[in-house]
């Protein structure tokens, strides 16, 4: 079995960095991390890049590509969301860079933004922007050999798919942490953060079924009518990530011997993880033990073990769509729950055009049309929610 080759697209925060640590702690014969790209979430581009460097330094020193997102393209969509997770500190990690400044990169590291194309011991900053580097890797590697793991808003993924959809479809799979399908959201009653900020991106990524006005306002081109195949997109929504939790008591117990041994990694991670637990405790209305859901680490776990036959997705790909215009439902994942027949003529496997077949009478949105909408694999079962916290601790610290 060949090792998975990953592009990790992240907006570094607490669980994003925990996911990076899980990936970076894997032996080189288990996974090939081809690139780490940074996208906009709730941490500035400079701090996001800094957290990637810190995570890299804590685990191993390696030559890999780190890319930054194209800043201006979606800035107008991001500004309203800047402070949604502001309580995590300006670095997204509970200000761990102030608690342990000795574990931060040298103070001159921001100069790397001015030293484009240069190598350092642990970093090779690439230019042009992240989405173009994604496309370069997809062109230069065999088709179906690279998996993109998107753990933040889909800025880079959307730009890559829009700029060169044929090349983008060379990807083996795009794994997305995002959405809330049959459960409540986390930033609104119905929306999950990555798909709420901004909603334009996830709706343009999975498909093109939303109002054309929004597409035009994005300055992104429409996809060609006839593409060679469907994008293999696997969604890890809150429905499956929420039950994969780490409890405060378990983390305290397991991290203690590593801290006593003076592990820099243990000191660094315990600072922001324990601060996150404390923050969550202060927000709880009950005395239930504080638990941290491992949203982004689960996507890495899946990407590294998907070929082992221990995961389960929905029986058929689902037509999931992201609401972009609703006043109270923006970012909501919509699925057709009506008991209606959908024609199945094989076109969902052989064609991608959403323009070639007329709508069924009374079905203006194309929900019952097999050539329209999206085809998304949704994760519904993992190797075990109760196993994951132990797996993460063992892989990162042992």
From TrEMBL:
GO MF annotations, alphabetized: purine nucleosidase activity
GO biological processes: purine nucleoside catabolic process
Q: Please give the GO cellular component terms listed in this UniProt entry.
A: cytosol
Which keywords accompany this UniProt record? Glycosidase, Hydrolase
Q: Which Pfam families match?
A: IU_nuc_hydro (PF01156)
> InterPro entries given for it?
Inosine/uridine_hydrolase_dom (IPR001910), IUNH (IPR023186), Ribo_hydro-like (IPR036452)
Q: Does the keyword Hydrolase apply?
A: yes
Q: Where is the Inosine/uridine-preferring nucleoside hydrolase domain?
A: 6-196, 233-340
PANTHER family, per database record: HYDROLASE, PUTATIVE (AFU_ORTHOLOGUE AFUA_1G11790)-RELATED, INOSINE-URIDINE PREFERRING NUCLEOSIDE HYDROLASE
Q: What is stated as this protein's family in its record? A: Belongs to the IUNH family.
Q: What is this protein called?
A: Inosine/uridine-preferring nucleoside hydrolase domain-containing protein
């Amino acid at each position: 079995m060949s090792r998975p080759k990953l592009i990790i697209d992240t907006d570094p925060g607490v669980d994003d960095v925990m996911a990076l640590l899980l990936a970076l702690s894997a032996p080189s014969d288990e996974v090939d991390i081809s690139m780490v790209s940074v996208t906009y979430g709730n941490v500035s581009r400079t701090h996001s890049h800094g957290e990637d460097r810190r995570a890299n330094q804590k685990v191993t020193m390696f030559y890999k590509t780190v890319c930054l997102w194209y800043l201006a393209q979606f800035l107008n969509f991001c500004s309203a969301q800047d402070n949604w997770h502001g309580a995590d500190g300006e670095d997204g990690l509970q200000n761990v860079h102030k608690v342990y400044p000795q574990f931060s990169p040298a103070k001159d590291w921001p100069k790397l933004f001015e030293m484009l194309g240069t190598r350092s011991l642990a970093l090779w900053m690439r230019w042009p922007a992240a989405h173009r580097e994604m496309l370069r890797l997809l062109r230069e590697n065999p088709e179906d050999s690279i998996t993109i793991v998107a753990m933040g808003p889909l800025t880079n993924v959307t730009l890559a798919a829009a700029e060169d959809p044929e090349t983008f479809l060379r990807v083996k799979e795009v794994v997305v942490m995002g959405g809330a399908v049959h459960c409540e959201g986390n930033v609104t009653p119905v929306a999950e953060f990555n798909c709420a900020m901004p909603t334009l991106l996830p709706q343009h990524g999975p498909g093109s079924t939303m109002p054309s006005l929004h597409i035009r306002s994005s300055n992104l081109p429409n996809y060609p009518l006839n593409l060679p195949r469907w994008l293999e997109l696997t969604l890890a929504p809150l429905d499956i990530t929420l039950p994969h939790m780490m409890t405060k008591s378990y983390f305290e117990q397991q991290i203690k011997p590593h801290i006593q041994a003076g592990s820099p990694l243990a000191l660094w991670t315990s600072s922001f993880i324990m601060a996150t637990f404390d923050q969550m405790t202060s927000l709880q209305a009950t005395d239930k033990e504080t638990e941290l859901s491992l949203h982004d680490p689960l996507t890495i776990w899946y990407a590294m073990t998907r070929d082992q036959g221990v995961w389960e997705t929905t029986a058929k790909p689902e037509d999931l769509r992201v609401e972009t215009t609703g006043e109270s439902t923006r970012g909501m994942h919509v699925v057709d729950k009506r008991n209606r027949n959908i024609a199945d003529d094989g076109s969902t496997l052989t064609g991608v055009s959403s323009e070639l077949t007329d709508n069924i009478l009374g079905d203006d949105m194309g929900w019952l049309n097999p050539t329209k909408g999206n085809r998304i694999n949704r994760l519904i079962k993992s190797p075990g929610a109760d196993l994951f916290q132990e797996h993460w601790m063992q892989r990162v610290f042992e």
